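Predict fold of Cytochrome c peroxidase; 389 aa.
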Amino acid sequence: MFIFAAMSKKWKVLGAMSLILLVLQSSFKAFEQAEDGIAIQQLRDLYQRPITQWPKPTIDSGVNWVEFKSLPGVDTAYFTLMEQPDVVLGKLLFFDPILSGSNQISCSSCHNPQTSWADKLSVSVGHDHQTGARNTLSLLNVSQRKSFFWDGRVSSLEEQVKSPIEAHNEMAMDGTKLPKKLHKIKAYRRLFKAAFGTEDITFDAIGKALARFERTLTSRRSRFDRFLNGEFKQLSDEEVYGMHLFRTKARCMNCHNGQYLTDEQFHNIGLTYYKRKYEDLGRYVITHDPQDVGKFRTPSLRDVMNTNPWMHNGLFDNIIGVLNIYNSGMQMVSAKPEQKAADPLYPVTDPLMKKLNLTKTEIHAIAAFLESVTATQYKMRRPEQLPRD
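Predicted 3D structure, encoded as tokens:
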């Protein structure tokens, strides 16, 4: 009986090992053989051509899109730029908690250079430990945005930078009093004189200096950029496969396209939580147009794997989970015609959201591609000393 039991246990172990090998072989073949029977080497051959000869992405009718484009390298003029008086002033203001009512919170409290200029929190935490309702957007490439905030409520970076300063749950500073506060510091008067030709400090001038500094915050080139520029070994087979899926079956380029992987538009992807705990009506709060209920801006995917948690409410910290949401299509939470007729504010999920039928292997390949789009974090040093004399 003992010998039989031992042999039985041995066969069970061998059977389990065989099963694992079969799974691994199946996974390996998935990368040898992409969708529709295209071999991975064929895909590599396709995407090693000039980008104008690449397979066209899957784009819905009526959608305006732009082809991928690589980021430029760091210009040597960057270092000269960072020494310009208005940029120097803006950087000091950005990191200075004196801009807040409590003297404890700076712009960098939520836009941390150590975390790709976001904060790694679901939602921001500000004055008196109050929390907001939305995730902190990274400031990387903010100079390329056409509108700001998740709901696009302002179109100027100079106006955007003022909002958190005055918000009661962020920096809680009266914008009419801040200039007087800074004017008491001789060093700031000298800095404003160097930047704008006058020691007179205004809230508008503060906004201009902050915006000037924020425009210098850009993503570094990623492996994806180097691939676009002909360094084809920069992407693994899995990442090339993921990029192909991103462009085709996963339909991502309907919204995430161009140099910064965003269409700069607003969409309802089905996460409004209407009449529930996390309800957020998005752009509708600004426009009061029922067609805008639940719409939020399409964030750039540049450095996306450094800026988790994701979505407007920061509720998702696992990229596979995020991709599963898109895979579902989210139309199950969209208003039916009779619901919309009875309640004009009942959210309708964007028709661009469709069930994708992606396999687990395909989802992981897309996640791998997103890693290639993410560059090494650039961690700007904070000022060693802030103006106080």
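The beta strands are 266-267, 296-297.
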